[in-house]
């Protein structure tokens, strides 16, 4: 599909920097840039693809030099969008970039919508939908493993696997449909059990991909780990010790932390969003009450909770009250201040929190912090890596399409085994094909594409 208009956008982040890029895509890209870019070699009618041109940007208002720039040119169809693409590499100041952007618009380009360059790349067959989605996942990756999952998808590994399943299903469907065309030969009766086995194999392969979703999401988006406990037990000190940085204020005054403090670190390859919260007790100070309310909301949404207890003071009602909030949570009890004489031992803890995993630490002396990281890794199932052949899905759209595929294939296989009419089996097989095709974009509806590309920034 060729678009007739030429789109433009600033492709680099806003702010001062060494280089800023304005990107144009469409049939008039070269001619538009030629209106204000002067260089001895830059003739818009005779440019060499995949070349760089050095020259000067001229201010059309007064003919003065505005900036030196390098222009890169990628000729259709060998470009990101599959169209003529020109990128203006200039200095990165927001006033300069916006002025040049305005000049491209005045010269005939249209401001691109969110994700429009990538959408054109998809519509022009430069990438399938999983690859287009991976562009944003690569940009937003929060850990090395998250990046690896997205990069594999970007290179088309997920699409290859889906296409392989699609092709297998197509040939199965052709055999079933032969039975519709030649009913007198009774082809289906002879082949139904073999076809059912083949369908089952595709169904299981879809199931194996679905099973990677949990890990894929955790590696891609990370785990919310909330640090809670009564005031002054050392929650902020533990946050700082885990981060290896004095991020949160620590004082001997109970009620020091009043708002949520969030930082992300990687443990076992998985992003862990550590959330330090206000200590929970029965204070009636307005500001502390507000902080405690926020803390409770965070606990509710937490994937895991670190319950911090002060080992140097007897456990009391406030500790019991916090523990009571964690009935349905995955949590680790962290006995802090073990550098001081202990006021209680593990048996007391068992009465407070039967079956809790416990780690003894001293945030002040940094002892036990490695063990705490290991306990977190164990609890969230971080395996420390993925093997080179692993393909994980981390996208709810992919999972839901695979589930539709699996369900339709279950019905198709059952239909074959109970000798249902081939027309009906064929309907189920086509439903499975359509669901698989949604993943790579063979059969994806326009409104779904709108949702997918709205996640992108303008300029990508
Ligand atoms: N001896 C000792 N003191 C500690 C340890 N961890 C924290 N403290 C002290 O305990 C006090 C409270 O520490 P914080 O980290 O501010 O405790 P908190 O739980 O965040 O407190 P709030 O934000 O007020 O709820 C400070 O004086 C810390 O120096 C530890 O491992 N050993
Ligand atoms: Mg604190």
Q: Can you describe this structure in just a few lines?
A:
The protein is of the alpha/beta class and 460 residues long. It contains 16 helices and 13 strands.
Q: Biggest β-sheet: count, sense, barrel?
A: 7 strands, mixed
Radius of gyration: 29 Å
Q: CATH homologous superfamily of the largest domain?
A: P-loop containing nucleotide triphosphate hydrolases
What would you call the shape?
flat
Please name the CATH topology of the largest domain.
Rossmann fold
Distance between the termini: 19 Å
Share in helix: 40-55%
How many extended strands?
13
What is the string of SSEs from the N terminus onward?
Answer: EEHEEEEHEHHHHHHEHEEHEHEHEHHHH
Q: Architecture of the largest domain, according to CATH?
A: 3-Layer(aba) Sandwich
Q: Which regions have little confidence, pLDDT < 50, spanning 5+ residues? A: none
Let me know the average pLDDT: 92
Q: What is the topology, as strand order, of the major beta sheet?
A: 3-4-5-6-2-1-7
What's the level 1 CATH class of the largest domain?
A: Alpha Beta
Instruction: List the ions, cofactors and other small molecules found in this model.
Output: guanosine-5'-triphosphate, magnesium ion
Assign the structural class, choosing from mainly alpha, mainly beta, alpha/beta, alpha+beta, or little secondary structure. alpha/beta
Give the domain tally. Answer: 3
How many individual helices? 16
Beta-strand content: 15-25%
């Amino acid at each position: 599909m060729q678009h007739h208009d030429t789109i433009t956008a600033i492709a680099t982040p806003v702010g001062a920097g060494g280089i800023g890029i304005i990107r144009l895509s469409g049939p008039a890209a070269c001619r538009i840039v030629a209106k204000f870019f002067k260089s001895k070699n830059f003739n818009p009618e005779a440019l060499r693809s995949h070349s760089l041109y050095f020259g000067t940007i001229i201010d059309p208002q007064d003919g003065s030099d505005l900036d030196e720039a390098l222009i890169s040119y990628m000729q259709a169809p060998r470009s990101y969008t599959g169209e003529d693409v020109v990128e203006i590499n200039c200095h990165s100041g927001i006033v300069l970039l916006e002025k040049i952007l305005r000049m491209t618009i005045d010269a005939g380009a249209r401001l691109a919508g969110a994700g429009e360059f990538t959408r054109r790349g998809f519509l022009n067959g430069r990438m399938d939908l999983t690859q287009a989605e991976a562009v944003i996942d690569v940009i937003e990756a929060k850990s090395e493993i998250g990046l690896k999952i997205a990069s594999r998808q970007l290179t088309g590994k997920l699409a290859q696997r889906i296409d392989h399943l699609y092709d297998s299903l197509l040939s199965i469907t052709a055999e079933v449909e032969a039975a519709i065309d030649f009913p007198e030969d009774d082809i289906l009766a002879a082949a139904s059990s073999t076809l059912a086995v083949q369908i089952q194999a595709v169904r299981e392969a879809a199931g194996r991909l679905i099973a990677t979703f949990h890990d894929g999401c955790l590696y891609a988006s990370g785990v919310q780990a909330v640090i809670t406990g009564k005031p002054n037990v050392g929650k902020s000190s533990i946050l700082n010790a885990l981060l290896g940085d004095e991020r949160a204020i620590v004082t001997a005054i109970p009620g020091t932390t009043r708002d949520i403090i969030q930082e992300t670190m990687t443990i076992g390859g998985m992003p862990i969003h550590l959330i330090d919260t206000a200590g929970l007790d029965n204070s009636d100070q307005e500001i502390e009450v507000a902080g405690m309310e926020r803390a409770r909301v965070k606990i509710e949404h937490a994937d895991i909770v670190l319950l911090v207890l002060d080992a140097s003071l007897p456990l009391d009602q406030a500790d019991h009250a916090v523990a009571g909030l964690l009935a349905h949570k995955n949590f680790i009890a962290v006995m802090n201040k073990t550098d001081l004489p202990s006021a209680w031992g593990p048996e007391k803890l068992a009465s407070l929190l039967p079956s809790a995993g416990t780690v003894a630490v001293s945030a002040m002396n940094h002892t036990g912090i490695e063990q705490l990281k290991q306990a977190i890794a164990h609890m969230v199932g971080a395996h420390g890596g993925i093997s080179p052949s692993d393909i994980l899905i981390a996208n709810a759209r992919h999972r839901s399409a695979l589930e539709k595929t699996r369900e339709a294939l279950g019905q198709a296989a059952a239909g074959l085994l109970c000798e249902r009419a081939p027309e009906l089996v064929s309907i189920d097989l086509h439903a499975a094909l359509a669901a698989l095709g949604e993943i790579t974009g063979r059969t994806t509806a326009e409104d779904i594409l709108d949702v997918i590309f709205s996640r992108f920034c303008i300029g990508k």
